[in-house]
Design brief:
heterodimer, A: about 250 residues, alpha/beta, eight-stranded parallel barrel, 11 strands, B: about 210 residues, eight-stranded mixed sheet
């Protein structure tokens, strides 16, 4: 049976992984290529590279890093950050990305998802949504969670999927960084309306949070996290052994 | 040399890199002469069947490919490239394939239970087919590989070297003499995938 996926996310700026990491057997902990290899060798099912570079020079470096990673790491690679046109899709796909995640770009440009899906296939297009509760409603936020777009999130995500997005990364701003577990209510709301894979993001603090996630919301296909993996608070191998013991389908 | 056929469908960077990673001399090519020179041939592919079948024909690579296969050269179709090896596909209509393996490509929704997501995206386990021990490139039962597909091949089980269970047993790997195919992405399946590519590079030339 298909397995639940565990996905570390690497924020990259000017060619370096932003959040400090701390691993033994890893010489350069801020090298995206080294870290990607490390995760791939230690059980990650997929990797997300998030480009938080602002400058065009930084973007060139990111593209080169991506190329170098794809030369050395043979698991699926999703790339996000600064994707606002099909040209951006082309740029990262030609460097070895398998999927491209769009966020603010899809809010600003409603034709981006359908155009990209037509050109590269839905399996290539990931809608990444930053969502926060505002007055009892789920709102989509833009620009890395800074701007409230006043768009109702659940119907907007469904529309993105109807327009060709093949996967959803749902990042709850409410639980992000709190480390008290994923946003189960929000994830269920999205899982109930879309038929494509849903990746949970935001809130993981320990192994138990993943177990609760997969046991409670069967429509969630994957769990994504950054700092708990980078800081070594949770090892992917330990997490997967535990998942297996809990009868959650997992690749070991 | 291993020739990866470039006919304008999808990106071949990862596939090329994966052969480099196992130390093979590899060339991404749209030159028919390279197919003659190559020891082995890879037919990749992502996207829709009809579009890919058309592009393969118009690229001028289909005929030389068939000629090399006839001479006994090992060929490996990957994902949509595997589906192209079959007689025909029912993806958005009815379209002819290369007919190197008798069989049809059909929507997996016809056989898997309702409620499962389509496409199947993710890691799933391989189950060995009945004739695998003779000649296959899939050596180990239960290893996980990465799938992304909405359609699958349906054919005589004598051609099936591995299946995967997604609510139903779906064709994961096939072989007809020197013609090999895998539905999953070996270039995205970690060490297991690289070992499968290595095994293909080691099958003896007919």
């Amino acid at each position: 049976m298909i397995t639940k996926r565990i996905i570390p996310c690497l924020d990259v700026r000017d060619g370096r992984v932003v959040k400090g990491v701390n691993f033994e057997n890893l010489n350069d902990v801020n090298s995206p290529v080294e870290l990607a290899k490390f995760y791939s060798d230690n059980g990650a099912d997929e990797l997300v590279f998030y480009d938080i570079t602002a400058s065009s020079d930084g973007r060139k470096i990111f593209t080169e890093i991506l190329r170098e990673t794809a030369r050395n790491v043979f698991i699926p690679l999703t790339v996000g950050g600064g994707i606002s046109s099909v040209k951006d899709f082309e740029r990262v796909l030609s460097c070895g990305a398998d999927k491209v995640s769009v966020n603010t770009g899809a809010i600003k440009n409603p034709t981006l998802i359908p155009e990209a899906a037509k050109l590269y296939g839905s399996q290539c297009v990931v809608i990444s949504a930053d969502v926060k509760r505002v007055d009892g409603e789920f709102h989509v936020f833009a620009r890395g969670g800074r701007d409230d777009t006043n768009i109702e999130a659940i119907s907007w995500i469904k529309k993105c999927v109807d327009n060709g997005a093949g996967e959803v990364v749902l990042n709850s701003i409410d639980t992000d960084g709190v480390k008290k577990g994923f946003d189960l209510e929000m994830l269920k709301a999205v899982g109930d309306v879309v038929s494509v894979p849903v990746i949970a993001s935001g809130g993981a603090g320990c192994i138990e949070d993943f177990i609760t996630l997969f046991k409670t919301i069967p429509s969630v296909d994957a769990g994504l996290a950054a700092s708990i993996f980078h800081f070594g608070e949770v090892s992917i191998q330990d997490l997967k052994v535990r998942m297996k013991a809990e009868n959650i389908s997992v690749r070991l | 040399m291993i020739a990866i056929i470039n006919y304008g469908v999808g990106n071949l960077f990862s596939l090329e890199s994966s052969f480099n990673a196992i130390g093979e001399d590899v060339k991404v090519t749209s030159d028919p002469e390279d197919l003659k020179r190559a020891e082995r041939i890879i037919l990749p592919g992502v996207g829709a069947f009809e579009d890919a079948a058309k592009k393969l024909k118009s690229s001028g690579m289909a005929e030389p490919l068939l000629a090399e296969v006839k001479r006994g050269k090992p060929i490996l179709g990957i994902c949509l490239g595997m589906q192209l090896l079959f007689t025909k596909s029912f993806e958005f209509g009815e379209h002819e394939g290369l007919n190197l393996i008798p069989g049809e490509v059909r929507y997996i929704g016809e056989v898997i239970p309702a409620g499962l997501k389509i496409p199947q995206i993710g890691w799933n386990a391989l189950q060995l087919g009945i004739r695998n021990e003779e000649v296959g490139i899939i050596k180990n039962e239960g290893e996980y590989v990465y799938f992304v597909h909405s359609y699958a091949a349906f054919c005589d089980e004598k051609f099936i070297t591995a299946t995967t269970n997604y609510g139903a047993d779906l064709t994961a790997a096939v072989q007809n003499k020197n013609v090999y195919g895998v539905q999953f992405h070996p270039e995205k399946s970690g060490k297991v995938g690289l070992n499968i590519l290595r095994a293909f590079c080691e099958v003896s030339l007919c």
